[in-house]
Queue: 2 jobs
Job 1
Amino acid sequence: SGDFVLVLTCPDRPGVVHAVSSFLVGHGGNIVESQQFGDQLTGRFFMRLDFLVQGEGAEQVTAESLRSDFADVARRFDMTFELWEARAPYRTLIMVSKHLHCLNDLLFRYSTGSLQIEIPVVVSNHLDAEPLVRAHGLEFEHVPVTPETKPQAEDRLRELVEKHDIHLVVLARYMQVLSDQLCSELSGRAINIHHSFLPSFKGAKPYHQAFDRGVKLVGATAHYVTADLDEGPIIEQDVVRVDHGFNQQQLVTAGRDVEAQVLSRAVRWHAESRVLLNGHRTVVFR
Amino acid sequence: SGDFVLVLTCPDRPGVVHAVSSFLVGHGGNIVESQQFGDQLTGRFFMRLDFLVQGEGAEQVTAESLRSDFADVARRFDMTFELWEARAPYRTLIMVSKHLHCLNDLLFRYSTGSLQIEIPVVVSNHLDAEPLVRAHGLEFEHVPVTPETKPQAEDRLRELVEKHDIHLVVLARYMQVLSDQLCSELSGRAINIHHSFLPSFKGAKPYHQAFDRGVKLVGATAHYVTADLDEGPIIEQDVVRVDHGFNQQQLVTAGRDVEAQVLSRAVRWHAESRVLLNGHRTVVFR
Amino acid sequence: SGDFVLVLTCPDRPGVVHAVSSFLVGHGGNIVESQQFGDQLTGRFFMRLDFLVQGEGAEQVTAESLRSDFADVARRFDMTFELWEARAPYRTLIMVSKHLHCLNDLLFRYSTGSLQIEIPVVVSNHLDAEPLVRAHGLEFEHVPVTPETKPQAEDRLRELVEKHDIHLVVLARYMQVLSDQLCSELSGRAINIHHSFLPSFKGAKPYHQAFDRGVKLVGATAHYVTADLDEGPIIEQDVVRVDHGFNQQQLVTAGRDVEAQVLSRAVRWHAESRVLLNGHRTVVFR
Amino acid sequence: SGDFVLVLTCPDRPGVVHAVSSFLVGHGGNIVESQQFGDQLTGRFFMRLDFLVQGEGAEQVTAESLRSDFADVARRFDMTFELWEARAPYRTLIMVSKHLHCLNDLLFRYSTGSLQIEIPVVVSNHLDAEPLVRAHGLEFEHVPVTPETKPQAEDRLRELVEKHDIHLVVLARYMQVLSDQLCSELSGRAINIHHSFLPSFKGAKPYHQAFDRGVKLVGATAHYVTADLDEGPIIEQDVVRVDHGFNQQQLVTAGRDVEAQVLSRAVRWHAESRVLLNGHRTVVFR
């Protein structure tokens, strides 16, 4: 028996759920978990289904065969969809610079199996992360970046994405701005953690801005990468309380816990196909 | 066009969603919001559907006619279900003693239309609440309780529930323990707010217990009333941070905000048919 | 025996605490609660002291006599200070427009004695609040505002502040922008609630902006009024989680609870002399 | 110039703060941070002072010399006190079994310098933690425990505490119950993380109990070890929201983040001398 996940979006109209459930019944599928959302503003419908295929003939059923069979339903309702084995790990490339708290958090969760990912390689423009990565038995690649070598560095990244069949790039406090071209190429499959509660404090040094403004909470935002810096669709946000006693460095330290937690949630949800794009917003079926 | 809500629970098996969606398609129904949950431990399936009936003949469709038509599906899958007009207000009787913060919160939300309830009467064993109730233009009934008159007081409550066709009784800091008999009668349609994070600090004076134990958070729990005091199915809980500087009275004050918020959420969800019983636990489709 | 509160700020240098504690010892004062903060960035020191004056001669001691006696210490250390009876209620004028949730919350807390304020009058440019205000036995004054009558309306407000000896003006969702001149006059003694997590979504319709940006948390900010709109020193902020299922109206509703709580905390702290200005930031001795 | 921290508790009476500030002035001390708390219930006073000794002769001033000089003040006011160099790291022994999330969190924070501790040795009754500990360049000692060898195992622990001059023992999900005798010996200098919101769900398998009770939040509690299991003074607690969709394993996973954060906060505060015992409760000067 196989466990599969189907995510889809289409114009909302009567009969969508019926068509999908008919498809499932016809393939011996039983729903484990299902979530739906109809956006009344845009008229779009979003659905995530986790289902088991059991019984006679179930062992012949694969994600590929289901995808092929579902194409007809998708065409009829003008759906965009993805269908995967529910437990297939996302092939994930992590990029990091000198601050390792997000990387450490992701690697530890990976090591305990609580993130449904594989990590073929971790890339950094510095060497600080290497021991941590090696301690987890993972491949580390040093790709230094200078203004002059940036195009080559990005080409190297493209090669790694290609070579390792990467589904998801995670910018775990990677402090280099990617080129517009690369952002576009990775659109929808790269997640960045911004160390503020966006849209507050866009750009560099958000904790310094937060300190100057005298805020009482600091936050972090995980979002998809788009060419428009810090404006990508938000996946998750959270905050932590601070007070007048926090200096800039203490704000930074307080924020790190939130950054790591927010990013790991975003990665977990993405890897379990729980995040769907809805224009420049997201639908998250937690 | 009508807006209806269907909630159901049944043994989980293939075809349930298909049968329900077939029913909807057959009645011109279009799903606005849908949530499902299959409890793998108990093998039970839970579903909530908000759907519009539109198009030709829609004006003849009523909750009653849909209920009658759905009975066959329900029988086939051994379902327990309820089906209502989605915006029909719950007829709610509120009971209170001397602490009015939960009552004030409920009445204000009621006055702004953010709770889908009607309040035919507020009952109290004291007179403190009367001015607040009258200020909202609502009926107030004083039902004093002494150990001797408790049976008569409970009979009066039964009469009020009967007379006003009450669907939901809310114990908004009502400090009298209801008899086992009355608890049983109201089972599943009475919500109590307990002023602690259950199961910590059951029974009387939970803030005193919390203070003695030196806890760093205090909480509140909204739960269905059952004969087993403070053991009813939990609908909602929340906490607020306290510290060593809080004396007992300050714990009480800090807790009040949480009590009011937790209770109002529970009432809102119940009135929108978002809470389903799953043994002595609840499924809450927020 | 009297209970007094002293708040002060001065350049940080050795001997400040010793001078203050010497003063207390010399006046039979015993510290109930004390908080201090030295801002290493600005080199300023902040202190709040709640102290009892007991023993022989205590009944002759008044806030006025203490203030007069403390002037010498203050001069020596270049202090700005205030000294009050600790339980003296702040005379507070509340302004509101059509959304009453913050007003309702403040009035209820006032009625239970959990805010250390008196409310000589509630002012509104609309009539919606009148019944609620009257139900609490308080004075209501209707001061309509049009572009033409704004100067007169502000003059009327000044008269009310003067006549009622107002210490604090609370803008509890008052939807008129005050003139720069009035903002300056009220500087440091007027608190506004902004319905977003500042500096996100300044200006009008913050929930609409929040919706468009697809944020996962919405918030509220209580701040002192300054001529620079939405840029005044922040006293308190909080947020509440939302998700893709919230439309604009639901964001508004979710945010209201946070607005009311954030504003009431700010008012409570201000009325207990717990908030000190530190440039355009605040020190809050909670 | 030296930076020192003084924590003290004594019966609350007039003149305590004055005596301490006189001592500081007499030793050229300038207060960086100060917190006080008078417990009106028990009549005890608690104080934490972080102060700099600067100017002529400052280089001769040591924690030891200050301690010796302060003894007279302490005697006069019947104080219990500790006085340390403010940045001296706490010598900390960590114990762990098979669940490594708390250990990983502590070691990472240690590696970034955000915990003021040294870790001479990590002890476990299993071998799972060894690679993680070695990757941080720390000493690992395997001390297996069976019912028969428990006394020897505890003797070995005592030797390690002695040999490494340990100030603090952290039970970071160490799943063996310590003997009453050892608990008494370590009283006030051993911190345990309990994986529930105490006093809910004492004892083993708290997440199973939480699941059965259908709670909507799960939590964790860091507390000092005492002979009375799970009843030691609470240092810190926190919770995370769960819902009906969480099975037992998912509750466990959700709880881990809270456990790690709560424990690391408790260790940080303890190592910075911010936690004082007040009977079976704690005063935490955050």
Job 2
Amino acid sequence: MANDLPTTQWVLTLSCIDGPGIVHAISGAIVAAGGNIAESQQFASHDTGRFFMRLQVEAVAQPDTFEGRFEQALAPVTERYHMTWRLDTVGRPVRTLILASTATHCVNDLLYRRRGGQLPIEVPLILSNHETVRDIAEFYDVPFEHRAIAGADDKAAFEARVLAAVDELDIELVVLARYMQILSPGLCEALAGKAINIHHSFLPGFKGANPYKQAHQRGVKLIGATAHFVTTDLDEGPIIEQDTIRVDHSYSVRELTQLGQDVEARVLRHAVRSFAENRVLADGDRTIIF
Amino acid sequence: MANDLPTTQWVLTLSCIDGPGIVHAISGAIVAAGGNIAESQQFASHDTGRFFMRLQVEAVAQPDTFEGRFEQALAPVTERYHMTWRLDTVGRPVRTLILASTATHCVNDLLYRRRGGQLPIEVPLILSNHETVRDIAEFYDVPFEHRAIAGADDKAAFEARVLAAVDELDIELVVLARYMQILSPGLCEALAGKAINIHHSFLPGFKGANPYKQAHQRGVKLIGATAHFVTTDLDEGPIIEQDTIRVDHSYSVRELTQLGQDVEARVLRHAVRSFAENRVLADGDRTIIF
Amino acid sequence: MANDLPTTQWVLTLSCIDGPGIVHAISGAIVAAGGNIAESQQFASHDTGRFFMRLQVEAVAQPDTFEGRFEQALAPVTERYHMTWRLDTVGRPVRTLILASTATHCVNDLLYRRRGGQLPIEVPLILSNHETVRDIAEFYDVPFEHRAIAGADDKAAFEARVLAAVDELDIELVVLARYMQILSPGLCEALAGKAINIHHSFLPGFKGANPYKQAHQRGVKLIGATAHFVTTDLDEGPIIEQDTIRVDHSYSVRELTQLGQDVEARVLRHAVRSFAENRVLADGDRTIIF
Amino acid sequence: MANDLPTTQWVLTLSCIDGPGIVHAISGAIVAAGGNIAESQQFASHDTGRFFMRLQVEAVAQPDTFEGRFEQALAPVTERYHMTWRLDTVGRPVRTLILASTATHCVNDLLYRRRGGQLPIEVPLILSNHETVRDIAEFYDVPFEHRAIAGADDKAAFEARVLAAVDELDIELVVLARYMQILSPGLCEALAGKAINIHHSFLPGFKGANPYKQAHQRGVKLIGATAHFVTTDLDEGPIIEQDTIRVDHSYSVRELTQLGQDVEARVLRHAVRSFAENRVLADGDRTIIF
């Protein structure tokens, strides 16, 4: 900025049907509100005909003023283009509910990085149907709540608690950190676009129980993981992040599982960071990651 | 070696039911035949209870003598352990038949590296149902034969030609370098353990036509390829090599396809090299790669 | 585009000192000239205080008209911001001079992909101080010129020929495809920003002759390659692309060299593609790759 | 094993000057002692003329008996070949002293995986010149000792404490988990072959302070890390493990540093696991990793 006043960083994401003049209109509103574009990415999807944009905007640090002015300047633009948009401050911790089960690797990875300031999330609650992650949660000063799931009633109660927590705690993101229960269609819909799951992935894919055992039996040379949005179509929601790691015939099922957990933790962390930084936009069955 | 006589390098691969004393017996036969173990890898498969070994052996360069002596010394061992084994000279070019269709990337990659001495294969024939790779074959001085496949009869004739070529040309390895026809069960069986195919792989897997288009539509973040032995179970034979490459939402179907071809060529080359160096051993539905 | 007239794709790259209103001004000129932004990336460098942008613009296919209108609309903007800019058509083959020596792997890789339409370059000439790549050049119908370099005079003559060729053939990019001669400071300066070199890279770096031998002796677990702009500071110009590949103690110097060549070819290809697609912008000692 | 008695897994590593008959002699001693080779890798170094081997041996679970018998059977072999060897039980936790400073990422990674049984080490002590890792140590029930280093005397005292701890606690491995002090030559020598350091690596290498800042300024596309044995030649000891991660121009110095820490933790963990599983053998300035 030309002057030396303290500045605030804003992140603006938007999407609308593609057409001429969008960038000009948006940038005009930003200029009118006294902002300066520090970073920008856009993408026009040939599949859906939609236009997507993410901007980081610097403005003199009078947040309310900029936000107000910007909304005023943007109003005719969003109306004209039937635009979906969202303005946020850069680095604001996203309120995140973690669902866990017995496995600790994803929870540990997320909480360790959150504590170190490497992941812009805050975690007002971990809900789990097992006790295994309790001590990690306590070490990282995160509230932990255990609810056993022994049958269908328990599961319904657990899901009701999830929804209540989302509401009471202003949750913006639900992370299924190896939460091994299948969500009901109702919960999937209620959390549409804000629940991220992590699951193992293999080339080729293996269906059914114990995929690492199947991977071992087929002698795969790569194991991987996929982080995706939760939808009612199990493990088939829009993909946010994927990665693989090299293995060979000498790896036991146990070693494959451990390496797989390393990849899972890494992929989930990456996806959560992208979401928390407002980098993930939905484009039908796919995601745009800026 | 202690003396300065010229030496020959041998590669010995073997497998048998696991049990005590195998390595001692094998190494005894090598010592008795005057060889020295330069390199060795072994693996005991818990899945099948079988033992696998690959050795590189150095012997004074009187090949016939060593081979003869070694076979004699090994006879009681192989008999005792019901051993499957194979003795070859290191670096001997493996006689390879390439089956091609319209795509050139795999053929070009294999022939370029063969010419540079980077791939121990010789290619007495390329058979293709299209003309596209003819000029590449000619540039690299490899015989090329075109046989169109317009119907079931053509296909049967093509396959008969494959079998005849395998026989007449002492073919040890058949490489399906993007040969887009499904092999008949009979041909699969006739080529069992010596035909390698390459196909695209994705997380998750996509069935049906135009997988790169499906990959684009689902917004995958990785595309990959798998080289595997041909079996009657289409694209599901024992895996030899796999790799992936990172992509994002901005890649068009055409760009995904091109990058996919880069990975396919790399993975196939790697698999062919492993096979030609006697590093691939079958262990039921999986491979041991030494 | 709203109408169904055939369109042309343009790529606009620009840089200037960062400040408010740039995107708005640029997008205004595009709108005024009747273009639609299909893709856009920008970056504000904190290191140099400069702003960089790359846009792909779609306009009704009357190229001269759009280009003329756009230049007119842009003139006040470029003047106001002291902007460096360049407008090109998407996919136009970049006129590329290749300098070669004995190694064939990079030349082969570039020419194979150019022929397949995977690399938007045209190659009016390969200049080499050895004959090794002649047959590859001929196969791919690329003019080849051999000039031996036996001493300082030959080298000066070779470099004079390079400069003459750049001038006569309207060369936009010079690729040193394992051209093993050190360029004179004068030639480096004459080719500033348009000559790309590829060299091997290791962790840690090795100075002096036969780096693969040194890499072997130190037991590195990764070998790599770096593509960079040529500057007078040998092998230290702005980096365009890098990659590594995994190796282990069992690799001979010869095997390391071959794998190194695979990485070199891949990294150089990637860098050339980025350059030819107008994705590489210089920011002092670094590059912005869009 | 033929019978159903409980078995113990042994790991044998050895090296000697290469020559004929070694494998036969070793395998003979194993057979004589009643063991069965479950896994084996060997390597003959052309650089040093030495032979290296690692075997996993299964024997009926009377450890003392097998160990005693094996030593007896092996004695003439080790004498004949002037062999260096070591027999250990598979999975035995290696007694590890961790040296730390302010950074927590490596310590956290090692202790988390140790607790989950994924890393066969036990950590009787963490010594640090800062307090930062104390709470992590306490959470994982590992003794922590803080000793500030304000000057040369403190440093000498710290190093004396390291040597005393190594002695008192039967330490087999010292891990410098981002311990930012340069070890004295005396300590390097005292810990030769059993101290592992982790440091960042780049292509090209950067000397001096704040390497991530230099990496940013030069616009590197990869950042990496190297785990190596500590020698008096700073950061130049035999390499055990290396890895890299992809970055681009948009990463700030802070983001590069965080990603660099992820790679450091992963590479160090891998190196520690290899060491603890008796997979690392020294071959002059390089390592053999089985």
